[in-house]
Amino acid sequence: MKENNLEKIAKVLDLPSELFTKGAKIEINGNTEMILDGCKGILNYDDTNLKISTGNGTIDIIGSELYVKSFLDQNMLISGYIKALELNY
Amino acid sequence: MLFFKLLNLMFGYLHIKISGKFPERLLNILSQNDIRLWNIKKINEVYFAIIKISDFKKLRHFVFVTKTKVKIIKKSGLPFLVYRYRARYGILIGIVVFIAMMIILNIFVWDIKVQGNTTISKQEIVSILEKNGVKTPIVKKNIDVSKLELSLKQENNIIIWTQIKIEGVILLVEIGEGKTPPKIEEIVYPSNIVSDVDGIISDIKVYSGAQMVQKGDVVYKGKLLVSGIVDAKEKESGMIFPSKATIYAITDKHLSITRNYLFNEKQQTGKYYSRYSLQFFNFSVKLYLGNKDKFTDFEKDSYIKPLTIFSYETPFALKQEITREQTQSEFKLSYELAKIICDTQFIERERILLADEDVIKRDVSYIEDENGITCNGDYKISKKIGITQNIMN
Question: Of B256, B282, B303, B391, which is the most exposed, with the fewest CB atoms less than 10 Å away?
């Protein structure tokens, strides 16, 4: 994936990339909880596989007993046993 | 999270089931429109989630657009509970009465707690507070904390600082104690020292004034011991000073106890009955019928038990009045028993009488007659004597 100009400037000026990056911000606590900021929508929902759109790509979460604990305004809290993450950009 | 759970319980929430062709689309639209869903689970192509009552009302349009079906499967929270019991007025009245009682009871201070006291008793502090009009139960707004703090310090010199707080329904009094300043007895006026007892001088030390008696002299009450007029023998040219001296004298004390062989005593028969009454402030409600006493000769005892809730006193108290029947009987003691009783009473009285005395000699004798036995004690004690008298009066 190509970097846009803003991302290039941020890199040169050593600024935090999250200020200009369009993609989602992912935070994982252990392997049981994941906070996803920048979620545009659910593409596929299963208790073993969760496919989420981030606007410029998709995120595949593979695990077991997965469920969405909360979903509001592009913020998603996912619980369950997370085994793998696949980022498709 | 607990806070949100409590909020949800208070405002109520719904467990819903989402089915149809594209339920994910509904989830995405709801998220974009600030409608929060939580605990979203998918079981057999059907979604289960939780939604707030207020948000559920906004669902209709989105359900129609996404061609899905939403069904309520469970209702939880306080609004549904209230709705279920809406016809039961008793519960509502009970809740209202409970809240009203809590509010009324919170208006008063029910108890006084004292902290930091070591030498001053709680009772002393409470009595000072009572003097200032603070007697439990009292309305909180009638308590002037700063005035109370000041009066506590003024009325007891040992208290060096105080802090009074109203914590809930308790008046918390925190005090700090200092040491009592020693009393300086400085007599600045010209004075004599005279004897306050009859006795024999055993020791005399004069610091100021003219010594009028010697060791071994017999003195009586009112006799001049030390004169403030220094040259007392030549009164016309004498100079006057405040007298200071330490004088000890040997004095007599007597104690007598008589025990008669015959005596009357009231004895309880073992029969009794109790009567209860409920007290609320100055009001009393009898919990029994009739006022007549069942016994002719009786003794009454009463106990007041304050009713408490979680160790806090309420304005209610239960008063128990026990009436015990008694009869008057005459007894005759044997000589041995009378002597034992007489001895016991004598020792007890002697202990109180001579508690602070320096006893030099002790003589105890018994006198018997047909009525009883008498125990006599004669003591010689050494004690500090002398009182100051102003010469100018």
Answer: B282
